[in-house]
Queue: 2 jobs
Job 1
Amino acid sequence: MKNHMINAFQEPACQHNQAQSGQQGCAPAKPGQSNGGCAFDGAQITLLPIADAAHLVHGPLACGGNSWERRGSLSSGSSLYRYGLTTDLSEQDIIFGGDDKLVKSINEIIQRFQPPAIFVYATCVTALIGVDLDAICHQASKRHAIPIIPVNSPGFSGSKNSGNRLAGQALIDYVIGTEDPPFQTPFDLNFIGEYNIAGEMWDIEDLLKQLGIRLLSRITGDSHFKEVQWAHRAKVNMVVCGRALINVARHMEDKYEIPYFEGSFYGAKQTSYSLRKIARLFGDQRLIDNVAVFTANEEKKIEQALKEARKVLKGKRALLYTGGVKSWSVISALQELGMEVVGVGISKSSQEDIVRIKDLVGEDALLIDSRGARVVLETFKKKQGDILIAGGRNIYVALKERIPFLEINQERDHAYAGYTGFRQMARHLVTALQHPVWKLAKLDPPWKE
Amino acid sequence: MTICFSEKKLVINSLKISQTVGGVLALQGIFRSIPILHSAQGCAAFIKALMTNHYRDPVALQTTALTELDIIFGAEQNMIKAIDTVIDKNDPSVIAVLSTALSETVDDDMEKNLKNYRENDPTDLRLIFPVSLPDFEGSLESGYARTVEAFIVELSHCILENRPVKKQGNRVNLIPGSHLTSGDVMEIKTILSDFGLEVMTFPDLSHSLSATLADGYSPLTQGGSTLTDLKKIASAQLTIVVGNSMEKAGQIIEELHDIPYILFDSLTGLEKVDHFFSWLKNFTQSPVPSRYQWERKQLIDAMVDSHFYFGGKSYAMASEPDHLYTLVMFLKELGCMPAKLVSSYATPALKTMEETVEIGDLDDLERGSDAAEFWLSNSHGQQGAGRLSIPFMPIGFPITGQIANGYRRQVGFRGTIELLLAISQVII
Ligand code: SF4
């Protein structure tokens, strides 16, 4: 286990590691003032969207039992990933190590579901009692002749981000490069770190299809296990939005010479930019020209479609608190709609992200460097914000304060990526701001003295 | 003996919810309180997300945020730091430190550590107490019950110091079980006060996790009973306990304060509600208010009108023990028969049931329910019901994809009618 961790955190392309060497990823949580998820949570966010694999949580009930079916990733194929599988360790299991239960659980899963692979997740308790996940998975893998992959990302080892990276490391160590695709095309592309939240990747895939670009491997939104295995045959990698899986892109660049770039599909500008960048990396002039015409067209169309929304949104003051990685991409989308971003949460952003954010928002905006709802609310009031844009955890914080809100993370139900998604986002912003409930909720009862 | 156990090694689609969720829920019914989970930070984040999603309200919860190193060098320091921080920042009236599988595995002696901590500052009057809630025992229901019990013991310490207490003629305590919603608790309180009783409720979810006492956002609970009110429990004539799992809480009050208790295992369905009202009539020597007489007639009318639809229908159900018991009894009145029943852990009350109950998961329910005509469970059961193409109705916790879960009622005549209507909408 230690080895995987060391590899994952020596990633030179990750700013988290450079800025805070000596620590694993982000600063550790503080007792009595923490809200974040654990590394196990992060690992599941990354791997669970592999829809036809079985995902077995080796630990006490709470880890798997309190968290299953909570992610917004959608699948068009298998639904095995929606099964919540856990060894649910008893006190006896914990005393005697739980190995026997794990082995039998793996057998049972194979008998019941015949999955192409099983991911087995370590948790705090199994790490603490010294379960040798690598050895057990290795043995079982040999016996059953399918990949059984240990994911050594116990909760207490770090934050969600570090779990994303450890999961990426598991893909590097056990999955990528172990199969070949049935056929290849000149324009094979991978997405890395795209989780198909609310099905938003389907909108992007549609655009790619129109341009003749094939999405070879989705890492990991709406993927099946095999396609991740053959990801190394792509010609271009795009790391979508977050840097958490940059280690996977780096690895494929080093080992298979696949160029990568980091981009986003939030907002029309960035969607066009990403598509053009993809074309340039393929290096085919015809494709480059096609994409140029296509994106210009799309932008013209959306310009027209957004006219009304822009009138409402112009000058509206937004506070963005996404927990870091996606901030810059969302900021630029909001600005495209004429909104002003008056505050941004940066507690989980890397140095590079922060520089990018500062460039976008200018000197006046406040950067919020601490976690916790209170600070967000204070900043919102100080900056006289009109709408809070944040993760699901903060929805009801905002609603309790009667503040308009737009949800922007893993658990949301709406697709915001690409041109279609951008239109939807604009529509939702307008509805949130103009909703009659804000006036009604502030009314005092007429009989109040 | 009518209980059997799942034969699987692993859990597939868990019905069980960790005890800590029950502990956190219980604390939400006490004003200006906060539970602290003694574990790594992720456990609390999952619980927060799970509960927020169901109740659509902020949930007060903090964590001792154990890391790998803390566990090696002593989890105690984290607990103290967490309590200090919470007091410093938010000044709560009540703090419960909840253990987890992780803190129990490292054998952290919370009881001793908390005692030492309290001795440092004996002038501090707030309640701080530990509850042992390992994941490997019980489920949400037992975690809630244990937390309420621990709270009563702690509260009683500070009441007993201020003895003697004078009993008030019309004052009663109400201890609602974990299967009752905010709407249910509100309904029971209303009924009791319509009979002229003054009620001390704990935990009181009737104005927590929904409309709350205080406006705006706070990291502490914004609703629930206040500590000042709760100190009056010793002056009650009687404790009313709703739900078998809460009986021990009633017993503790009886032992410590010499107040008898009465247990109602269910307040849903004609016979159970009739029993409640006739007891109330005797106890208070007041007539049943006409509003309830009308509601009773409406319930009977609804039962008669719907008997064509319900009669002979078989159903699959999975829920926590008290909830399962309540609904099985009610569905019997509607003429429905269980195809399969699954619950999260074995309790004495389940053993007394005629029907066979399997202790297992939602996969166990799915595998025995081909013949069922409707399916009742929390929202995690929806996928299984979907695979069997059986109409699904969400009950219990967690429920996703619909609003106002906290307000839905199932107790009293009114609540029973609402429940009947909700099920009929799924099956007709
Ligand atoms: S912090 Fe540890 S014990 Fe808690 S949910 Fe995460 S892996 Fe499980």
Note: Chain A is about 45% helix and 15% strand.
Job 2
Amino acid sequence: MPHIICCVKQVPDPETPASQFRVDEAAKKVVPVPGIAPVPSQFDTIGVEAALRIKDKTPDTTITILSLGPESYRDSIKHSLAMGADEGVLINDPALYEADHWVTAQVLAAAIGKLAPFDLVICGRQAVDWDMGVVGSTIAEILNVPCITIAKEIQYKDGQVVVERVLLDGFETAESPAPCVVTVSNELGEPRYPQLRQIMAAARKEVKVWTASDLGLDAAQLKNLVSLERLYVPEVKVETEIIDGETPQEKAEKLALKLREAKLI
Amino acid sequence: MFEPTAEESLIRDFVRQVARKCGRDYWLAKAREGAFTEELWQELAAGGYLGMMIPREYGGGGLGMQQMAALLEEMSRQGIPLLILVVSNVMDALLIARHGSPEMKERYLPPLARGQTKFCFALTEPTSGSNSFRITTLARRDGDTYLLRGQKMFITGVDVADYLLVVARTVPYDQVKDKREGLSLFIVDRRAAGVEAQAQDIRILLPEKQFALFFDDVRVPRQNLVGEEGKASRYLFDALNPERISAGAVAVGLGHLVLEKAVAYAKERVVFDRPIGGHQGLQHPLAIAKTNLELAALMTRYAAWLFDRDEDAAPSANMAKFAAAEAATEACDLAVEVHGGSGFTGDMDIITLWPLIRMLRTVPVSREMILNYIGEHVLGLPRSY
Ligand SMILES: Cc1cc2nc3c(=O)[nH]c(=O)nc-3n(C[C@H](O)[C@H](O)[C@H](O)COP(=O)(O)OP(=O)(O)OC[C@H]3O[C@@H](n4cnc5c(N)ncnc54)[C@H](O)[C@@H]3O)c2cc1C
Ligand SMILES: Cc1cc2nc3c(=O)[nH]c(=O)nc-3n(C[C@H](O)[C@H](O)[C@H](O)COP(=O)(O)OP(=O)(O)OC[C@H]3O[C@@H](n4cnc5c(N)ncnc54)[C@H](O)[C@@H]3O)c2cc1C
């Protein structure tokens, strides 16, 4: 029976109106908007969808949801369980709250090792908060398994993973033996909604909680490689110029000239 | 009971996700063209949410009013409330599940849970709204059937429904000793001979319409009687209390929706030298509106919690409906005020919500009748009418 592990991060709701987005420059943190609940990162939910599609075809598949973050991340695990995943693991350790992508990948890789055997690890192509897009491939590197990025379709059969990858101008098919890591993109399609029945089951399911020491990791050794120098909202200046003219043709001509001057066309 | 359960949070997640596909714009477009939001309905069905209050053995989720209230409140907060959800899948589903015969449950509940059928609830009549005991629609026994004759008003969703749950008298009002006796409940096929429906001119922007219904000696099979003949008044409150809790949840959700718009605007709009939300003349009313909405939300949760524990939910259901409708109306009026002239534009989508929010003060039961109830039954004061 195949075992798929999906890494799910929780992020501030990207649909939060831009006018409400604030950062605390001194603390170098995004200020949570009161009343707007955080959500699972969209690409990660798509990853869960990809795993569920494999489970639809191979029903004895087990899907484990893995998250690194504080207690509130439990909501995103429950969301994934309500979509149809089987188990949830939360790594909650205050020493890891400020983890950069390197430490995150190390911790997740250690947890994946503890959850082994596994056939497939699925991550989002990037998290929709910081858009770094490195955790998936770093996990593969640490685990020393192949990695296929930016998938629009994943098929799994008899120990072989077949992935359709998104390219700038088309698609390509890549294959790898399991176990491997695949990162998914939105081209994979809409994630399914939580079903009422699964919601009831998910609400009752225990989420395992591990700390760094449960993973045999010494939190003190887990040193960030990246340090955040400054966090700020860049000021965007918009200058408006109305192009005038007698006829639409004349306006278009003037506009084209302007755009050429600005080297935009 | 102050913490939302894991189920409630997931139900809200689901609603927010559905609202990305069938959201406020979709709902408004349907309401404007006078069409039902069938796609939204089917999303609810596919997720299993229409059967939420239907027992598991009949294909439902076997959940309670607390989870339903979370669904209704979140749908309203997303601007996609549906009245027929309350009528069909809360009130009628509960009446059939609690008082229907086994054959009746087997026949009607699974398709209701799957979203294949819808029910109306037909109680109000031209001469009896607040005073339900005075209804005159009469069902006379005639062999193996009843002959139904009379008229109903303001019935939601007749055009999209398959069945009507009709409250009728089997003994006329002037022939009973106790006015509570002689009321009966029937499932009537919407397409039965002698049923006629006329759309009413109701100026509330909604994807559902209201209808006047005429029953001209409609033949209703005896097995369509829900529960015992003449005893419906004992069952009705199994539907009317959940209806009040539902109305409370809808009002809380809509109230939050308009208040959030007001607050966002008050933070941005500068009329003199700072955002208008910085003037106490607006800030304090906004703070009061928020407080009243949160209080109403708590009372709605409490009423739902009592109902789910099979305790007497009537006092709190009435108070929740009253408080929520008042708070939402106050929030909507304030949201218009905060927006100044823009509050009256369709773009802002606040004045568009006003009739619906204001309706909740009067429907399903008016504030006066609620105050009568609280005065008489909670405070023990003399009956005032
Ligand atoms: C949009 C909409 C949808 C509806 N959907 C349905 C439906 O699906 N099914 C259904 O059966 N009905 C439905 N109704 C009807 C609704 O339940 C009634 O309108 C409501 O119960 C009030 O009854 P009424 O309109 O007859 O008002 P009335 O009973 O005529 O009352 C008029 C006013 O007099 C006041 N009043 C009455 N008695 C007293 C008293 N003793 N003391 C003080 N004041 C009093 C009332 O509070 C009210 O303000 C709907 C109505 C609307 C507007
Ligand atoms: C149907 C309609 C017809 C109209 N016809 C005309 C017309 O013919 N000619 C015309 O010129 N205009 C017209 N108007 C515009 C109308 O006069 C303005 O909408 C009104 O003056 C309010 O201005 P505003 O919309 O800019 O609101 P704002 O000035 O933006 O005010 C928004 C809110 O902030 C509050 N506020 C502002 N300052 C303070 C403060 N210092 N302390 C506390 N609260 C404050 C306001 O009271 C209000 O609640 C019309 C508007 C409508 C809706």
Note: Residues 42-57 of chain A form the longest helix (16 residues).
